[in-house]
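JOB MANIFEST
job_type = single_chain_structure
chain_count = 1
residues = 190
[input]
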Amino acid sequence: MSYAEINGLHLYYEMQGDGQDGTVPIVLLHGSMEAATAFDALAPALSDSRKVIRVDLQAHGRTGDINRPMRLETLADDIAALLKHLDVPLADVLGYSMGGGVALRLAIQHPHQVRKLIVVSFPFASAGRHPEIQAGLHQLGPQMAGALVGSPSSAVLAVGAASGGLAAAHHPCGGGDGTRVRLDRGHPNA
C-alpha cells in the first residue's frame, strides 16, 4: 500500500508496471462510491506496456475524508500534486463517471501534466444528467452506506468506512452550475 501526503490528504495510490523508456504513464480515476479496485480488470492489461497509477480519491476507498468540500477542482489539484510527488511530468488520464469529471478538471487546470484525456460516462454540464440521477446525487452521503450493503459497492464502502472515507456529506458532481467547457484541440500535448 502506498500513500502520499497531498493537500492535507493521506492519499492512497497504487502503481503497476514499469513502462518502457519514453512511455507515458496512465492515471486511472474511479467513479463515485468506487475505488482504485474498479480498474482491477483493466490495469493488468495496461501495465504490460506502461506504468499504471490508480488512486482512491478523497473520501473513497482507502483515502479518508478531510475538512474541505469535495469538488472536482480540488480533486484534480490532488491528482496534479500526486503526479508531481511521483515525479511524473506528463500522463495520460482516464476517468470514469466522477473520475471523468476529475480528469476533465485536471486537463483544464493543469494542461501541462496531461498528454491524452479519456473521459468515460461524464456529462460536461449537470443539465446532461437525467433529472433522477441529479436528484439522487444530492442525497449521497454517509447515511446511504446501510442501503448499499450487499451491493457491488459494499466492499469499497467497508474499506472507506474503516479509513473515514464515508464522511463526505455531499457529492462533488451534485451541485453543478451548468458551466460549459471548451477544450482546445490545438493543445500542444494533444
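[summary]
Residues 72-85 form the longest helix (14 residues).
The chain is about 25% helix and 20% strand.
exit_status = 0
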